[in-house]
Amino acid sequence: MHRSPLLAVALAATVLIAGCDDKPAAEKPAAGASAAPAVEERDYSAWERGKSVPVADPVYPKHGNASLDVLHYGLDLNWAPPSKTLTGLATLQIRPAADAASIELDFKPYKLDKVTVDDQAVDGAKVAAERLTVPVAVTKDKPVTLAVAYHGTPATTPMPSHRGDAEPLGLTVTKEGGLYTMQEPFGAYTWYPANDQPSDKALYDIAVTVPPGYSAIAAGTPAGIEGTTFTYKSDQPMATYLQTLAVGKYKKATGKGPRGIPLTYWYRAGADDRMLPSLKKSPTFLTFLEKRFGPYPFASGGIVLVDSPSGMETQQMITMGREVKKFDAAAFEEDLLHEYAHQWFGDAVTTSNWNDLWLNEGWAMYAQFLWEQELYKFSDKELEDYLRKYDALDRKKIGPPGHPNPANFAEDNVYICPAAMLKELNDALGDAKFFALAKAWVQTQKGSQQDRASFIAFVNKQTGKDFTKLINSWLDSKTTPR
Fold first, then answer.
1. Four-point Cα dihedral 21, 26, 29, 33, nearest 10
2. pLDDT at 403 over 90
3. What's the whole-number mean pLDDT along residues 37-45?
4. Which residues have a Cβ under 8 Å from the Cβ of 329 and sit 6 or more positions away?
5. Residue among 449, 390, 439, 445 at smallest CA distance from 414
6. Is 87 within 8 Å of 219 (Cβ atoms)?
7. Apex CA 415: angle with CA 440 and CA 465, to 5°?
8. What's 84's DSSP letter?
């Protein structure tokens, strides 16, 4: 998610499925639960890359289920603008991470049409308090396939933040009869059953059928269009908050990034023409980032413009808001660079819990500062002074970034403060060693979920020095470290 502090203006003024035995051990279901259907053992190896180690999120504990590891989401969706009805069939391959009496996922109260587990119909499945409960007992490491057919009108959920661009989260119906979504830290559950927490990354196959004249865009690699059905495939694991869906009367432009990476830009002809030149600068942004952080980590990239005031690093297909009072191309491009940086930091390597949002935003923010520094030619001293000034203000107003207040999601402290920490780390190591560290972090941890402890351990091992105190002090201190 972007955060644009307009630095230049300020300066000018001042993981494999285990234990699949041939014959699962019989489990006695808890009272009120159905026994898992007796079916022929399935081969789940196709979704092996979707394995995660889910953890309960300490910041938003009501979202997600650490007892389930979704390996793959297969979403077959149909959008009908006249009735504002989304019809879906979500097929999930799930590895239980613990024995449980039922399958529980985040889900808005759509009308359930049919629910099956391993092709067997399940009675008693229900959606209540934004939670889908399927009364089928599951056993640790014995994967199951859950299919949920549903329909209804999408509804959003509030964003826990005081940001100036804060808006309702989840799938939003536009005035023109289209759709778009912003869903960090949660909100994917407003359009499909989801384990809506960052630690559970999964693979995706998405097919969206829309009326003639409309286009449908999702995260992942474009997999073709048949009639008015648009398909996308993610064979690199993705957290739910990084998925996206946009439907509208779009035009498409294409380009190529470094090493021939295919790029796609979705925009409205006429209304978005002023933004198209900035979108087409994507190869320049990617070249800048590859030089510092190594190869772009996915098979394709792109941008979709939506009716939002914000921007979001949705995986392989950045979601950028077109709702700006006065379009500033330079500021818009700085935001684009920031979201592209997230493809390395946040998408390829994802935080496992929202206490460590700094791990995503600090890197993307620092990359944005480096871009601005090169563009506007300000000195390291000017950058240092700027970071320390606003770090002090943010710590006083919002607190340190290491344990953010749940009511202050993605506010300035998780951007500026960790970016200042990375600047200190860069100064201590020098550019050669610092960017070698950054490249190694992404390229060796790609596809995984990480946290503060694993980052510190990686930094210390990679550099041969102990930076534990430096990192912890910048994350936890109530005042700017000296």
1. 70
2. yes
3. 76
4. 274, 277, 278
5. 390
6. no
7. 40
8. T
